[in-house]
Amino acid sequence: MGTSVAVAVAAAVLLLDLVPIAHAEIKTTAIVSDPRSIILFEQFGFASGGKATVSIARAAWQLRRPGSRAVDPNLMGFVLISGAQFPKVNNQTEYSAADPTGAGAAAGGGGGDSDGFCVLTSEYALPMLRLNDVPPGGASTTVTIDDADEYAVVFSNCQDGVEVTMDVRTELYNVVRRGGGDGIRDYLPVGLQPLPAIYAGVSAVYLAFLVGWAWACSRRRDTSQRIHTVMGALLLFKALKMACAAEDAWFVERTGTPHGWDVAFYVFGFFKGVLLFTVIVLIGTGWSFLKPYLQEREKSVLMVVIPLQVIENLILVVIGETGPTGRDWVAWNQVFLLVDVICCCAVFFPIIWSIRALREASKTDGKAARNLRKLTLFKRFYLVVVGYLYFTRIIVSAFLAVLNYKYQWGVNVAVETASLAFYVFVFYNFKPVERNPYLYIGDEEEEAAGGELEMDDGAF
Fold first, then answer.
1. Measured between alpha carbons, how far is 146 from 169 in angstroms, rounded to an integer?
2. How far is CA 23 from CA 11, 190, 276, in A?
3. Residue 46: Cβ within 10 Å count
4. Its principal location (predicted)?
5. What angle do CA 385, 389, 393 make, to 5 degrees?
6. Cα–Cα distance measured from residue 130 to residue 76, given in angstroms and rounded to the nearest whole number
7. Angle separating helix axes 2-18 and 329-346, nearest 10 degrees
8. What is the distance between the alpha carbons of residues 416 and 210, in angstroms, rounded to a whole number?
9. Nearest Cα residue to 80 out of 20, 111, 40
């Protein structure tokens, strides 16, 4: 049992760091016939003086095989584990699993099964509430945090084969004192407290971006294409998504609940995600810029990417609303990451196809300079898309895993900065202008461009 406990805690905490989920808030969770030895409820960055409350409305337990032995409710309960103490708890579980004599369990304050280590009794875990202390009418306990750190609220079941049913309400918050009066509850973790202002600022930037884009398109109506309208819609939904994210974080910070703004966030996030990948595919195929139609294989990419984006956003809702307490939460995260990777890979094909088609055309149509400019544009676009997706999917997740909990907002700033840079690059290079430099080339450039195309013939 010791090894399973170590793996369960480590995997849950790691996924909480790597996968974006809803902010910690007031939550009520129903646990039904759950046999897991470890259930991670929340992870929250506390300042000194913060409080963690766990309330249990009802609690029941049963053996998977009735009558095999008695159940001790004193070996089931809630603890807080700080980030500083987690490695020690993990070491205890590993040592207990490797110690066949049982001495490791005893050294760690073991209990429960004779061959296992009980996190509930570890000296490195801060006790909160045991099921033995929960009367039929329910019970509640509040722990005040003395040492600032990131803490995990964990339910530990130290008996194999025991299923637990309970209704749990968690309320985690910091206490902000202003002017010597009563403290004000702040339900955002320490590392996420700047989020309302950050998201509001990002939303304002994209609204200004949208106004500028609409003005540019209205001035150049004769050169505006259908893709420019789609790009404007992308800016609109990005701005609305970030505005809802700001309201969501603001309400959570003050009340502990998002008041429905999370629903609006998911809706606008869905349209933004679909439009982002659609714009990448349409630009990558040269639609509206190089040709007024899509080939069958390009339509197939869109028919794959758009349904995958629908699935990905639905999974994101499940992940955000259920949290790590769900039994299939880890599986949902794995599916989410898989779908996201497939979407990211799929959008590269149209760009590569366009680059190859332009290279083949350069050998036959006699317009070397124009094709060289187009090739330069699409290669640059390809590299920027690769860099953007790689940064926001991989580098940021790795950065979050090692970042101090007090500065988790820095990851959000990094993601939004990269996104804005990507949008600026795409919109600037594909803006509506007269005599687009990628489409209109002077005759004097043809001879020099022909030699460059011959040298460039081996790429892609």
1. 22
2. 19, 11, 25
3. 25
4. membrane
5. 175
6. 6
7. 40
8. 16
9. 40
> 80 exposed, middle or buried (CB, 10 Å; 0-12, 13-18, 19+)?
buried
Query: The tokens 């989410």 sit on which residue?
Result: 336
Give the strand pairing for 76-82 and 27-34: unpaired
Q: Phi first, then psi: give them for residue 48, nearest 5 degrees.
A: -60, 130
Q: pTM of the prediction?
A: 0.81
Beta-bridge partner residues of 362: none
3-state class of 219 per DSSP? helix
Strand spans (E) along 113-262: 126-130, 139-144, 149-157, 162-176, 184-186
**Per-residue tokens: 444:** 């004097």
For residues 313 and 305, give the distance between their C-alpha atoms in angstroms, rounded to a whole number: 12
Give the Cβ contact number of residue 33 at 10 Å.
11
Inter-residue contact 219 to 211 (CB < 8 Å)? no
The letter for the amino acid at 340 is D
Sole residue written with tokens 């009558």: 67
Task: Write out pLDDT tens, residues 1-52.
Answer: 444 444 444 444 444 444 443 455 789 999 999 898 889 998 999 999 999 9
Among residues 336, 334, 339, the alpha carbon closest in space to that of 307 is found at 339
The set of residues, in sequence order, having a beta carbon less than 8 Å from that of 427 and lying 6+ positions away, is 209, 213, 231
